[in-house]
Write a structure and sequence with these properties.
Length: about 900
C-alpha cells in the first residue's frame, strides 16, 4: 500500500494541521462543525516534502490518488471538471503548516475552457461573469503555473480598458471580456510557443505541482527566514469547488477578523468587494469597502457571517482571520486561521480572552511570541508637532516610520540593509516585495485596504503601513510621488503614521514608546511563570533606569571600559599607559578613580536594592591609544615641520608606547585579567571605585546595590585566584576605612573554551559564573564576529550550511555544550555557584529556551530586550513543563 497523500475534507480536522496544513485543517474543521464550506480535498504536506526530496518528482501513487479524489469529488458535486454541461470549477490553493499569508501561489477558476465557458454562462444566466472567470484563469494559470510575466497580461488589460474608456475592469462588458480572453490566450500561446494545454485534468496536475514549487520561491524563503520557520515543512495543496463572488451585485468576497488585528479591540473588522474574487481584496487591486457596509448590501449573508465569526472564535479560543465568498446571497467560508496581529493587539487579545474565561494565564503567555514585543519598544511621532499631513490613507499597521522615499523593493532592501532608513512607496505591494518591506521603516501604498497583502505583512513584522492613499500619483520611472501640489523624489525624507493613516512631507521628531496596561498585565503573568532571572547589560545611569523601567531585575553586565573613553578621561588613561613605573601609574589611576566612582554611583542609584555585576577592564590598552599608523604620521609631520621639541618628544614617547602595545591579534592578546596580572594597580583602583560608589549610594539613599565584581577573560585557576585576592584586599580595605559592612561577590566571565572545560578548577575561587557567549562563540568556532558576519557567514546561512547566525542564536551543539559543561563542572565543586549569560544570546528567545534546559539562574541582555527575555523565559518554562508531561 502506498502512503495516503489525499484527504477529503470530511476526513480531516484541526488536529491534522502538520499533515493538512493550516488551511486544509481549518476548512476540514469548519466542515466538521457544520459551517458552510465548499467541498474538496487536500494533498498532504508529506507529498510536497517527498517531491522536494526527490528533485521535483512526485512520489509513487500521488497522480493516481489525485485522479481518484477528483472522481469522488465530481460524484459528490454532480459535476465534471471542464465538462460542456454542469462543469466543475475548482480553486487550487497552498496551505502551509505555519501561516505565510500571500507567500505562496493560488490558481482560481481551474476547469473553465472553450468547452465549458458557454455552459457556465448559460447556467449562471450571466455571460459577463463566465468570461470574467475565463480571463482571470488564463492570467493566473499563465503566471503561476507556466511562469509567464504578469505584465504581459496587465498591459493587455490596461490597453483594453483604455480602448473601451473603462476606469475599472468591472466596467468591461461581456463582449469586452470575451475579446480580452482571446487576447490572453494568444499571448499565452505566443509566450509558450504553442504549448498551452487545454486539458483541465492536466491543468490540475500542473497547478498542484506549481503550488509545491511555490514553497521554494524567493518570497516564501525570505518570509520563513524572517519568522524562523523551518524549510522542510512543505505545503499542502487544497483543491476546492469554486464559489463565485463575481456573479454580480448579490455576490461578494471579503476578509474579516474577529477582533481588530491592529489594536486587539473586540470590534467588527474586515473588508469586502461586491462582484469580485478574493485576490481582488488581498492584492489591493481595488480598494474594498468596510465590512459594516455589508449589512446594508447583503443583510442575510452579513448576519450569518457575524454568527460564524463568533462561533469560530469561541471554538478556537483565539482571534480568527477568515476569508469568505457570497454567491448569489449564500455565504461560504473559505478559510479560518489564527489571525496575524500587532504586538499591542496580541497583548490585548490575550488579556481579554483571559478576562472572558476562554483561556488561562499560561495559555495567554503561550500565545505571544516574545520577539513580537519588540514592536512595542519603537518610537511614535511626537504629538506636539505642527506639521500638516500631505495625505491621509488607511491606518493599516500602527507605529511611525521616518525615512527616504524609495519606489521599488530591491532598492528598499539594498538601502535598508546598508543602514539607511527608507519608506517603501508602491501602487500596491505584491508578495514578491517582502524583502523590501522587511528592510523598510514603513510602507505607503496607493491602493489596497486594511486586509491587503501590504497591511497583513506589515502588521506581522511590526512595520507601520498606510494603505489605500488613492489620491497619490506614483511615477515609478521618474521615481516620484505627487501628492496634491507636492512632488516627492526618491531620497526625500517622509514620515508615515500607520496608527492614523497620515503621511507627512519631511522627517518628524519621534518620542520613546509608552507601555500600556495590557503590556504590564501580561508580562506580569510571564514573571509569575518563569524561573530564569532577567537582568540587563547597562553601562550608565540612563541605560540602567531604562532597564529597570522595562523590568530588569539587576545589571548582569556593566562594562567599565566605556567609561574611559570620555574627552576628559583619555588624557588620564594616556598618562597611565605611558607611565614608566608603578608610582607614575598609581598617580594616573588616582585621577581616574573618582571618575569611575561617579559613573558607578549613577548606575547604583538607579538599581539600588538589585544586583549589579561590574566587569573590570576588558579590552587591550592599545584601544585607548592612537592608531599606530596615525601616530607615526603625526610624528613624521612634526619632524618635517620643525615642531616644538617638547611636543615632538611627547609624541615620540606616545609612538614608542603604541608600538610596544601593538599586537597582531589584540583580542587574543594582553587584555582582560591578563592586564590585571601585569598591572595589578588597575583592578585595585577599579575595585576601590566600585565599593566607594556603593557606600556613597548607601549613605545617600539608605540602600545600595547587591554588589558583584567580575574578572574577565580568565582561563587559568591561578589568574582568578590572584585577581580575586587583589579585589578582595581592595574592597575590604575600603570597608575597613569607612567602618562599614557590605556583602559582595567576586566571580568571573567564562568566555574561553578552556575556562568551560576546567570550570571545576576555576569555580573554587568564584562566587558566580557569567558566560560571555559573544567571545565564547568566537573562540570556540575560531571566527571573528565582525569579519564573519560581513563575509562568509551570510552565505553560510542563505546556503543552509548553518541554520542560524551563531552570534544571534547560540550554537547549541558546540558553544551550548561548553556552557552546559561549565555549569555542571562549576556546581560540582561549588553547589551554590550562581550562573548566567550576558552575551547577545541573553535576549534571544531560542537561546533562552536552551538556557532554561541547562539550569542557568539568569540571563542578561540589552535594556530594550528585557521584556522579550521575560516572555521568552516564561515560554521556555512552559515548554519544559509540556515536554516533561
Amino acid at each position: 500500500m502506498s502512503e495516503k497523500y489525499i484527504y477529503d475534507l470530511s476526513e480531516g480536522d484541526a488536529s491534522m494541521k502538520p499533515l493538512l496544513g493550516g488551511k486544509g485543517a481549518g476548512v476540514a474543521e469548519m466542515t466538521r462543525l457544520g459551517v458552510p464550506v465548499p467541498d474538496g480535498f487536500t494533498v498532504t504536506t508529506q507529498a510536497c516534502i517527498e517531491t522536494m526530496n526527490n528533485n521535483g518528482e512526485w512520489p509513487e501513487g500521488l497522480r493516481g490518488q489525485i485522479a481518484d479524489a477528483l472522481t469522488r469529488f465530481e460524484q459528490r458535486a454532480g459535476r465534471v471538471l471542464g465538462a460542456s454541461t454542469r462543469p466543475l470549477l475548482v480553486s487550487v490553493r497552498s496551505g502551509a503548516v505555519v501561516s505565510m499569508p500571500g507567500m505562496m501561489d493560488t490558481i482560481l477558476n481551474l476547469g473553465i475552457s472553450d468547452e465549458s465557458v458557454d455552459a457556465i454562462a448559460a447556467e449562471s444566466g450571466n455571460e459577463r461573469f463566465a468570461w470574467d472567470c475565463y480571463r482571470r484563469f488564463i492570467q493566473m494559470y499563465g503566471e503561476v503555473v507556466e511562469g509567464l510575466s504578469s505584465h504581459v497580461y496587465e498591459d493587455a488589460l490596461t490597453a483594453m480598458k483604455r480602448a473601451k474608456g473603462a476606469e475599472s475592469d468591472t466596467d468591461l462588458s461581456a463582449a469586452d471580456l470575451k475579446e480580452l480572453t482571446a487576447e490572453f490566450k494568444r499571448i499565452s500561446n505566443e509566450e509558450l510557443g504553442g504549448n498551452w494545454t487545454n486539458d483541465p485534468r492536466e491543468q490540475l496536475f500542473r497547478a498542484v505541482e506549481a503550488v509545491f514549487r511555490s514553497w521554494q520561491n524567493p518570497r516564501a524563503q525570505v518570509y520563513r527566514k524572517a519568522n524562523h520557520i523551518p524549510d522542510d515543512l512543505g505545503t499542502a495543496v487544497n483543491v476546492m469547488q469554486m464559489v463565485f463572488g463575481n456573479r454580480g451585485d448579490t455576490s461578494a468576497t471579503g476578509v474579516c477578523f474577529t477582533r481588530n488585528p491592529s489594536t486587539g479591540e473586540k470590534a467588527l473588522y474586515g473588508e469586502f468587494l461586491t462582484n469580485a474574487q478574493g485576490e481582488d481584496v488581498v492584492a489591493g487591486i481595488r480598494t474594498p469597502r468596510p465590512l459594516s457596509e455589508l449589512r446594508d448590501v447583503l443583510p442575510e449573508a452579513y448576519d450569518q457571517l457575524i454568527k460564524t465569526m463568533r462561533t469560530m472564535e469561541t471554538h478556537y479560543r483565539d482571534m480568527q482571520d477568515m476569508e469568505f465568498t457570497i454567491e448569489n446571497g449564500k455565504l461560504y467560508m473559505l478559510q479560518t486561521r489564527n489571525g496575524k496581529r500587532t504586538a499591542a493587539a496580541a497583548l490585548k487579545v490575550a488579556a481579554d480572552l483571559v478576562d472572558e474565561g476562554l483561556i488561562d494565564k499560561e495559555e495567554a503567555v503561550r500565545r505571544i511570541e516574545p520577539e513580537q514585543l519588540d514592536q512595542l519598544l519603537h518610537p511614535a511621532i511626537d504629538p506636539n508637532h505642527s506639521a500638516a499631513p500631505v495625505v491621509t490613507g488607511l491606518p493599516a499597521s500602527p507605529g511611525a516610520g521616518v525615512g527616504a522615499a524609495v519606489f521599488d523593493a530591491d532598492t528598499a532592501a539594498e538601502k535598508g540593509a546598508a543602514g539607511e532608513p527608507v519608506i517603501l512607496i508602491r501602487f500596491e505591494t505584491t508578495p514578491d516585495d517582502i524583502h523590501g518591506v522587511l528592510q523598510s521603516q514603513g510602507v505607503l501604498t496607493a491602493h489596497g485596504g486594511m486586509t491587503s497583502h501590504a497591511a497583513v505583512v506589515a502588521r506581522g513584522f511590526g512595520k507601520p503601513c498606510v494603505a489605500g492613499a488613492t489620491t497619490i500619483k506614483i511615477n515609478p520611472d521618474a521615481k516620484t510621488v505627487t501628492i496634491g501640489d507636492v512632488v516627492i523624489h526618491e531620497g526625500d525624507q517622509i514620515t508615515v503614521n500607520g496608527s492614523t493613516g497620515e503621511v507627512f512631507n519631511g522627517p518628524l521628531a519621534l518620542i520613546p514608546p509608552r507601555l500600556g496596561e495590557d503590556f504590564q498585565k501580561v508580562v506580569g503573568w510571564a514573571d509569575e511563570i518563569r524561573d530564569l532571572g532577567v537582568e540587563a547589560n547597562a553601562d550608565n545611569g540612563p541605560d540602567a533606569a531604562k532597564a529597570r523601567e522595562l523590568g530588569a531585575e539587576g545589571i548582569g553586565l556593566c562594562r567599565t571600559e566605556h567609561m574611559f573613553f570620555g574627552e576628559h578621561r583619555l588624557p588620564a588613561m594616556h598618562e597611565m599607559i605611558l607611565a614608566t613605573n608603578d608610582e607614575e601609574r598609581r598617580s594616573a589611576l588616582d585621577k581616574i578613580l573618582p571618575m569611575q566612582q561617579a559613573d558607578f554611583e549613577a548606575i547604583f542609584a538607579e538599581m539600588k536594592g538589585l544586583p549589579v555585576t561590574v566587569r573590570l577592564l576588558d579590552p587591550p590598552l592599545h584601544e585607548f591609544m592612537p592608531d599606530l599608523v596615525t601616530q607615526a604620521l603625526t610624528v613624521q609631520e612634526l619632524e618635517l615641520t620643525g615642531a616644538d621639541p617638547g611636543e615632538l618628544a611627547a609624541e615620540r614617547t606616545t609612538l614608542a608606547q603604541v608600538k610596544k602595545l601593538h599586537e597582531q591579534n589584540p583580542m587574543l592578546g594582553t587584555r582582560g585579567c591578563r592586564l590585571g596580572m601585569l598591572y595589578p594597580q588597575i583592578p585595585d583602583m577599579q575595585a576601590r571605585a566600585v565599593v566607594r560608589a556603593a557606600l556613597a549610594v548607601l549613605e545617600r539613599e539608605g540602600e545600595t546595590v547587591q554588589l558583584q565584581i567580575m574578572i574577565p577573560l580568565v582561563h587559568l585557576q591561578q589568574e582568578l585566584k590572584t585577581q580575586r585576592e587583589i579585589v578582595v584586599a581592595a574592597v575590604d580595605d575600603e570597608l575597613a576605612k569607612a567602618g562599614k559592612q557590605l556583602d559582595y561577590k567576586v566571580g568571573t566571565m567564562i568566555e574561553l573554551p578552556r575556562a568551560a572545560l576546567c570550570a571545576d578548577q576555576i569555580a573554587q575561587y568564584a562566587d558566580f559564573f557569567s558566560f560571555g557567549t559573544n567571545d565564547l562563540t568566537q573562540t570556540t568556532l575560531g571566527i571573528s564576529r565582525d569579519d564573519a558576519e560581513n563575509g562568509f557567514l551570510g552565505w553560510y546561512e542563505s546556503s543552509g550550511v548553518v541554520k542560524r547566525d551563531p552570534f544571534a542564536t547560540v550554537d547549541v551543539d558546540g558553544v551550548g555544550q561548553l556552557v552546559r559543561m561549565g555549569v555542571e563542572k562549576g556546581r560540582s565543586v561549588n553547589p551554590s555557584l550562581s550562573t548566567g549569560v550576558c552575551g547577545e544570546h541573553g535576549g534571544d528567545p531560542d537561546s533562552i529556551a536552551f538556557f532554561q534546559t541547562i539550569g542557568l539562574d539568569y540571563v542578561s541582555c540589552s535594556p530594550y530586550r528585557v521584556p522579550i527575555a521575560r516572555f521568552a523565559a516564561a515560554k521556555a518554562k512552559l515548554a519544559q513543563q509540556d515536554s516533561a508531561s
